[in-house]
Specification:
Blueprint: H1 5-53, H2 59-69, E1 73-78, E2 81-87, E3 97-100, H3 106-117, E4 124-129, E5 138-144, H4 146-198, H5 214-262, H6 265-269, H7 274-302, E6 311-314, H8 315-327, E7 335-340, E8 346-349, H9 351-372, E9 376-384, E10 388-395, H10 402-406, H11 423-434, E11 438-445, E12 448-456
Parallel strand pairs: 3-4, 7-9
Antiparallel strand pairs: 1-2, 1-5, 4-5, 6-8, 9-10, 10-12, 11-12
Helix pairs in contact: 1-2, 1-3, 1-4, 5-7, 8-9, 9-11
Keywords: ATP-binding, Coiled coil, Kinase, Membrane, Nucleotide-binding, Phosphoprotein, Transferase, Transmembrane, Transmembrane helix, Two-component regulatory system
EC number: 2.7.13.3
Catalytic activity: ATP + protein L-histidine = ADP + protein N-phospho-L-histidine
Length: 462
């Protein structure tokens, strides 16, 4: 019970209502004491009027009048004269205290009531008040405190019992309200979460906000958004897994086809045609790289991209191979190629992976210029400092669209052109990270785009 929200709310409601009733109890008891004493003054005044009607009252009748009034004696002040109207023997000769009820303050009444409630000793006190209907200047009586205290205790117990009943009834009503308005909707949200966790791919498990409470509805809307995004992400992961399996199968068959093609390159190299003899080595290199790529794709499907085999590579030779390969894919006059790489600059990298990195970036630049429908320029430059080698691939294309900038290195989301898969930059980033390097977007805009590659000179040891 105490571990549930509704149970704790029930207990807290009872405690708070009882606390409120206690705050009401103190002034209520003080008011009861004041009314009790005023009633004794009024009874005493009535008894004194009976004496005025017949001055020859017997001692027994006088005692009966005082007993009915609940006092020991009555003193009236009329026309500046004090008059002992009625009197009887007091059990104590000493008067413990005097209380003036003609104009008492609220705090004074509360203080006197609490003192009387917690004082067990039976005392005789004097009470002064104003006579009703202006029958004199004041009336004064003496009385015992024991009956007053007992009456106050009885009244207090009845007030506390009523307070307890009210608090329990209120708590039950609030408990039922909380169960209906809060606990039941929360359990509904929990049910949606459990059903969704059991089958996240089932869209029927996504919550439909229907709560009337603003805060709970906001929670339902946030949960719906989270579940929707997660479902889409899971579906994308499944599609990627299926695509990976398909790519693995295609790569396997393509590797066999390319391996067969390698067997024919020897005959091509023996051709007497000078142009064929010049292009044959590039064809052999392209087929070799394609076979290597297929094997790497199959390896990636089984685990991860193979670790790079690092060595010192002449960067200018790799850049020339990339440019020559991409130049064959377009009309010569469409793109102007600029290579600004020092001839003797060597970098520590895996040559095949470095070729793939640069080829992806240069191909993206070429495709961006081709998609713009106008001629452009692609520049590959490099330099070094004390800690790193820096390579820049710049183009004069139309720049990257805003969506591509948000998911630039995310597969299938960071495509830089319409119809692109976004794999090129993702592959380049992954390969560079294997070298301990990084790939960043230097700038982009209507005048072109620049990517910056960083390869560290250190070997990663401390």
């Amino acid at each position: 019970m105490l571990s549930t929200l509704s149970g704790r709310f029930l207990i807290l409601t009872i405690v708070f209502v009882m606390l409120a009733e206690v705050l009401i109890f103190v002034p209520s008891v003080a008011r009861f004491r004041e009314d009790y004493l005023l009633d004794r003054l009024e009874r005493a005044q009535i008894a004194s009027l009976a004496l005025e009607a017949d001055n020859m009252l017997s001692t027994e009748l006088e005692a009966e009048l005082l007993d009915t009034a609940g006092v020991f004696n009555v003193v009236l002040l009329r026309e500046e004269m004090r008059e002992l109207a009625l009197s009887s023997p007091m059990p104590q000769k000493t008067i413990a205290a005097s209380f003036d009820l003609r104009d008492p303050g609220g705090l004074t009444l509360i203080h006197d009531a609490m003192m009387r409630l917690f004082t067990r000793e039976n005392q005789v006190v004097r009470v002064i008040g104003a006579p009703v209907r202006d029958a004199g200047l004041l009336i004064e009586v003496t009385l015992e405190t024991a009956p007053l205290r007992m009456a106050m205790i009885d009244y207090g117990l009845r007030v506390l019992a009523l307070s307890a009943a009210i608090s329990i009834f209120t708590a039950v009503l609030l408990f039922a309200a909380v169960r209906v308005l809060m606990v039941r909707p929360i359990k509904g949200v929990i049910g949606y979460m459990q059903r969704y966790a059991a089958a996240p791919e089932d869209a029927r498990g996504i919550i439909r906000p229907h709560a009337k409470l603003t805060e709970l509805r906001e929670a339902e809307e946030a949960l719906m958004k989270l579940q929707t995004e997660l479902t889409h992400a899971l579906k994308q992961k499944q599609r990627l897994a299926q695509l990976g399996a398909a790519v693995g199968k295609i790569s396997h068959d393509l590797r066999n086809i390319l391996t067969s093609a390698q067997l024919f390159t020897d005959r091509i190299e023996a051709s007497a045609d000078p142009l064929v003899r010049r292009l044959a080595p590039k064809l052999v290199n392209s087929i070799t790289r394609a076979v290597s790529l297929c094997e790497s794709t199959l390896a990636f499907g089984r685990a991860e991209e193979p670790a790079p085999t690092l060595g010192m590579v002449a960067l200018a030779d790799v850049v020339d191979d990339v440019i020559d390969s991409e130049r064959l894919a377009i009309e010569p006059e469409t793109v102007a190629w600029v290579r600004d790489v020092p001839p003797l600059l060597s970098v520590r990298a895996d040559p095949e992976q470095l070729y793939r990195i640069l080829q992806n970036l240069v191909r993206n630049a070429r495709q961006a210029i081709a998609a713009s429908g106008r001629s452009g320029e692609i520049t590959v430059s490099a330099y070094e400092d004390d800690d790193n080698w820096w390579i820049k691939v710049a183009d004069t294309g139309p720049g990257l669209p805003p969506k591509a900038r948000e998911h630039l290195f995310t597969p299938f989301q960071g495509g830089t052109r319409k119809g692109g898969s976004g794999l090129g930059l993702a592959i380049a980033m992954e390969l560079l990270q294997g070298h301990g390097g990084s790939l960043a977007l230097g700038s982009t805009g209507p005048k072109g785009t620049t990517f910056v590659l960083c390869l560290p000179k250190g070997d990663g040891t401390i």
